[in-house]
Amino acid sequence: MEIRKIESEETREKKSKRNVLILSMVMIAILVFSTAGYFSMREDEENGENNGLQFNLANSLKETENVSILMFKTINDYSGKMVYVSSDYSGGLSELSLALRDYAERIQEACYGECDQNLPEKDCNETMIVISNSNESKVYEEENCVFIQGDLRAVDAFIYKLFDIK
Length: 166
What we know:
Elements: H1 9-46, E1 68-70, E2 82-87, H2 90-100, E3 106-109, E4 111-112, E5 121-122, E6 128-132, E7 138-142, E8 145-149, H3 152-162
Helix pairs in contact: 2-3
C-alpha cells in the first residue's frame, strides 16, 4: 500500500492550474497548426500543385486512346457554370457528375432539343454535354455543346481531355 503525501490546498490549486494551462496550450497549438495546414493545402490547390483527379474513372487512359477527340474545351470552360447533360445512359451522366462536381456551379440533366420527358429542353446556346450511344467512339464540339458518341470509354476520354491528362 502506497502512502500519499499530504498536500496543502494551495499546492493542489497550483497543480490544477498548471495542468489546465498545459492542456490549454496543447489545444491552442492544435488549432493553430490545423488552421495553418488547411490554408497551406488551399494555396497548393490554387497554385496547381494538387490538381490530380480526385475520382476514379471506369476506364484507364490507355483504354480510351482509340476515341477520336476534336475539341478545345478545358475544365475552365465549365467552372462556375450551369452544365446541362443529355445522356442516353445513366453511367455517362454519373461519370460526368463525379468529374465536374467540384467545378461546375450545377449539373442538370436535360434534353437536347424536344423530348417527352419532364426535363428542360436545351440547345447549344447553353453549356451542354450530349452523350449518345454509338458504335463509333468520338468526341467533338459545336458552339457551347460537346457531343460524346460511343460508350463509357468515350465519356472517360472526354474527361481525360478536359483535365489535360496525357
